[in-house]
Amino acid sequence: MSREPLTIWCNAKFPEPVMAELRRAIGDNRLIFPSNLQRSNLAAAAPDESLSQADVAFGQPDPQQTMALPRLKWVHLTTAGYTRYDRDDLRAAFRARGAILTNSSMVYAEPCAEQALAFMLALARRLPQCLDDQRTTRPWHALEHRAQCCVLTGQTVLILGFGAIANRLVELLAPFRMNVIAVRRKTTGRELCRIEPTEKVDELLPLADHVMNILPSTSITDGFMTRHRFARMKRGAIYYNIGRGTTQDQQAIIDSLKDGRLAAAYLDVTEPEPLPPDHPLWTTPHCYITPHTAGGRVEEQQAQVEHFLENLRRFVEGREMNDRIV
User: CB within 10 Å: which end of the chain, N or C, has fewer?
Assistant: First the structure.
């Protein structure tokens, strides 16, 4: 059965080889662009007049504008996070006209999960401390480091938030025979580890050797890791955040590291971003920071386009969409 070609609006600035693949793979559908393309998929876009011509938006369109365009049938975000779009009025507007909102969680599940595991292993095997030795006076602290190295086997990790990234992390942790617990608001019964309701987090925090924060930024999760909750953590535990910086009390992290409550903290996300060079997190002992790179990989933009194209096929064929939000 024939159909009218779709008009696809895209405001992501992809490298030319990736853009060429997108143009080729959409077939007879029409691709249009705003005057300002976005290099960073974390940047918010301004309203764009050309979006009103689109059936599909790919990238980061202005949320308010997407609600007001009856022609727009589907919005696909190039990010896993969707804070700007996590609004009751937007959900209601999309549902009222049968529109779809999807994101790119599947694109970021593997790199983020690998980054989380990498830091768990690095801290267990004291790699940052050995690197510090090499970069300073090069002492031979063999006995000290060996005595403090540990293995992950048998330890408990508590995961805050359970989506695509957490699911992949659980798979990666399986060979280490850890005790993995995750908290989430709703369970599906298909999770690969023990799931507890979010309301039980205060009971679970004292049990964990590792607390892995993968929470998105929402009105419910912002400020989730409060000073009280850091105080509930086991002394000597390690805290990680590859979710969003708004979900944690950063002064409480600093204080917990200084008083020894936390053995270490690894932060891929902070509030604000970029983190100012004079921010005390940079110089707090045992605080390790990466600049929101957990989701990165060489072929990141290629993966974004491939994910969109798979969802485009599903959209055209009326099949279930990957990473559907609305």
Answer: N
Which ranges of the chain would DSSP assign to H, the alpha helix? 16-25, 63-67, 88-97, 105-124, 127-135, 142-148, 164-173, 201-204, 227-232, 250-258, 300-317
Residues 53, 9 contacting (CB under 8 angstroms): yes
User: Which domains are present in the chain?
Assistant: 7-103+298-317 (3.40.50.720), 109-289 (3.40.50.720)
Reading the block at residue 319, the tokens are: 């099949």
Does an H or E element contain 156, and which?
Answer: strand 156-160
Give the pLDDT of the chain (326 residues) as one tens digit per residue.
457 999 999 999 999 999 999 999 999 999 999 988 887 777 778 899 999 999 999 999 999 999 999 999 999 999 998 999 999 999 999 999 999 999 999 999 999 999 999 999 999 999 999 999 999 999 999 999 999 999 999 999 999 999 999 999 999 999 999 999 999 988 877 888 999 999 999 999 999 999 999 999 988 999 999 999 999 999 999 999 999 999 999 999 999 999 999 999 999 999 999 999 999 999 999 999 999 999 999 999 999 999 999 999 999 999 999 999 99
User: Model pTM?
Assistant: 0.92
